[in-house]
Design brief:
Layout: H1 5-10, E1 18-21, E2 31-36, E3 42-50, E4 53-61, H2 68-83, H3 88-108, H4 112-125, H5 131-142, H6 157-169, H7 173-193, H8 232-241, H9 250-261, H10 267-271, E5 278-279, E6 284-287, E7 298-301, H11 304-316, H12 336-349, H13 357-370, H14 375-381, H15 389-394, H16 400-415
Antiparallel strand pairs: 1-2, 2-3, 3-4, 5-6, 6-7
């Protein structure tokens, strides 16, 4: 028996609900049925057997929009699943889950969380060693105000103002500028992302039409140009005093010494260097591209005093590949935070005036200028990024001769009594 539209339409309600099922004679395809409720409402059902158990799927309520033809089409679809060895109920649940996951993925697509993740991935690809700090700055300051799932294109300038204002009100105006710069860079990256052929395989689409950070001003009045530097006499005094002090770590003493004798190299680039970067024969330290701030290899000529400092470190080494090994874990290098902390403790306990690690670099740059070393040579020696067209695209001279002459002159100045 197959249902007809007239038959279904003519089914009458009874005191209790009852069910009728078609019998097409086809085995293993399930049956289309109708449940007639006591209220008179009719529901289409699909009944089938799986592993000897009877199962039901409600297809929908009988109405002008869902009649016998529509119900039979769905029943035939489920029957085809059954004949293919699939459980229709399981397949429905699987399809439902896939749809949900797709909707969730779509909801996440282009979110501010994805924007931050993509930007940080880009920083890592470009060898930016500050990526961890930037990630923390972005997430810790943004997500309390803007939920991570918010579409990046829906972020407003007013929300950015809230983020920056919270930092200023907390008494951290300098940090507010750092966070603003990170946000601006992330959204700027997002604006170019969608049309960048390099990212065509990525699913994330941000759809940014403008940078919401651009209209938020930087707190320029809190940014002070660093002016603190040590005198030549103070540098010489520290070179003598620090090795004799008991209240400052050995690595801190040696890092200060090597920073001075290498003409103000960045502390991180020295502590992250490995012994294989030292060319003892040619007296050169190579700052490898992966730790160099500019992303380029940088070659530092070594003076007698720098070689002596490296030999002292070599005698103290614990088998670590790093020149400045971590005291607890030789598989890691000494931390610049520890260096800064050691200097703060020394200054606090001594009568020496306040200075920070960055001042060492400024000191070397300033004092070398005073003894006649050109700014160009000082810039090359300290591995500053040259952005002029000539330096960036054409000048491939290594300036090793000039850098070595500068190091020798600097060494002579430091050794003069």
């Amino acid at each position: 028996m197959r249902f007809t539209a007239t038959q279904v339409n003519g089914l009458k309600s009874k005191a209790r609900h009852y069910e009728l099922f078609e019998n097409t004679g086809e085995r293993g395809a399930g049956r289309l049925g109708v449940r007639v409720c006591a209220s008179g409402n009719k529901m289409f059902l699909y009944r089938y057997y799986q592993d000897g158990k009877r199962k039901f799927i409600t297809l929908g309520r009988y109405s002008n929009d869902f009649g016998l033809a529509q119900a039979r089409a769905v029943a035939i679809e489920y029957g085809d699943m059954l004949k293919s060895g699939l459980d229709p109920l399981f397949e429905l649940e699987r399809q439902k889950q896939e749809k949900l996951e797709k909707e969730l993925e779509e909801a996440r697509n282009g979110s501010i969380q994805q924007l931050f993740d993509s930007y940080i991935d880009n920083m890592i690809t470009r060898g930016k060693r500050t990526h961890k700090r930037v990630k923390e700055q972005l997430e810790q300051n943004t997500f309390p105000i803007i939920p991570p799932e918010t579409k990046a294109k829906d972020v407003t300038t007013l929300q950015i103002v809230e983020i920056i204002a919270a930092l200023i009100e907390r008494g951290a105006p300098v940090e507010s500028n750092r966070v603003r710069s990170a946000l601006h860079a992330a959204f700027q990256f997002g604006m170019l992302h969608d049309n960048n052929p390099a990212y065509r395989h990525r699913k994330s689409i941000f759809g940014l039409k403008f940078n919401p950070v651009a209209a938020v001003p930087k707190q320029s009045h809190v940014e002070k140009v660093g002016n603190n530097f040590l005198t030549l006499a103070e540098v010489k005094e520290l070179l003598v005093r620090l090795p004799k002090e008991d209240n400052i770590a050995f690595n801190a003493v040696m890092l200060f010494t090597l920073c001075v004798y290498t003409a103000g190299q960045r502390p991180y680039e020295l502590v992250a260097s490995r012994w294989n970067a030292v060319d003892w024969e040619n007296r050169v330290l190579e700052i490898k591209p992966e730790i160099s701030k500019t992303g380029n290899a940088h070659f530092v000529p070594l003076s007698d005093s720098a070689i002596e400092a490296l030999n002292i470190l070599k005698m103290d080494e614990t088998g670590s590949e790093y020149i400045f090994a971590h005291r607890i874990d030789p598989g890691k290098h000494y931390l610049t935070q520890s260096f800064a902390h050691s200097l703060r403790l020394y200054i606090k306990k001594s009568d020496f005036r306040k200075f920070v690690p960055r001042d060492i670099r400024r000191t070397a740059k300033t004092l070398m200028g005073e003894i006649g070393i050109s700014k160009e040579t000082r810039d090359k020696l300290q591995n500053h990024s040259m952005q002029d067209v000539s330096s960036k695209h054409y000048d491939r001279y290594d300036y090793m001769k000039e850098k070595r002459q500068a190091i020798e002159l600097w060494e002579k100045e430091l050794s003069n009594s």
